[in-house]
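Sanity check

After download, print the first record. It should look like this:
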Amino acid sequence: MIPLGSPSSLRSDAPPTIVARARLVDGEPAVRRVRKRILRPTGQVRWIEVTGSTMVGADGLAWTVGHMWDVTHEVEAASLLATAQRDVANLADVVRRMHSGDDVRSAIVNTADRQVIKPLTGGGVVVDANKVGTGRENLQAAFGAKVALDPVSVSFGAVPSGSGQSLTRSVTVTNLSGAVQTYLFTVTEPSGAGVVFAGPAQTLNLASGATGTVLVSMSAQRGIAAGNRQAVLQISAAGAVIANAMLYALIQ
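Expected structure tokens:
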């Protein structure tokens, strides 16, 4: 059992809480079971389960007997199980699409969650494209992918430090949604000095199932330090980010 705190710290999730109490007050001879979510003053959320029953004592008076215990871990486990079952269902759908001949690489890679993978030791997150790619796969997002990119990431390869090169690559964009989409391209999260990545300045309008091509570029200053350079090509539609693709160059 956990302390309830002040009345303001309680939040009832559903009307059945009130109904169960009313039935107990009315003396119905049944055991009532209710789960409640408690918001503690610290902001911590806990779940409790309350059971109550009415019994008649030797004096003929009705008494209400109640028990309350913490079921937070049980509720959290059930939530994790539901998430796992959903992910398995989404994965099964992706596998079916693969067997049917669909190319699902972009759906998986370009909808991955950014900046969530943590290192084995220490704090922060790992963003190195050579280690984590676009990020952690999100099967629910992959299942609902609205755009496909080919290639799923763009590498400009090895660039000599003294060359001062500017290179361009093409990316094929396919509208996977069931409606016309207007895609906006933005380059974010640049890493390393001396290299500028750029996406198309214009939006791309595609009907459902249609395909178009856009250009992305990399410009390296002459004489910059060797090492990895990367950025993210962010694709948005209807005001929301729907895909990310890594842009990469190795300065030698």
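If your output differs, re-run the checksum step. Summary of this record's structure: The chain has two domains: 7-70, 105-251.
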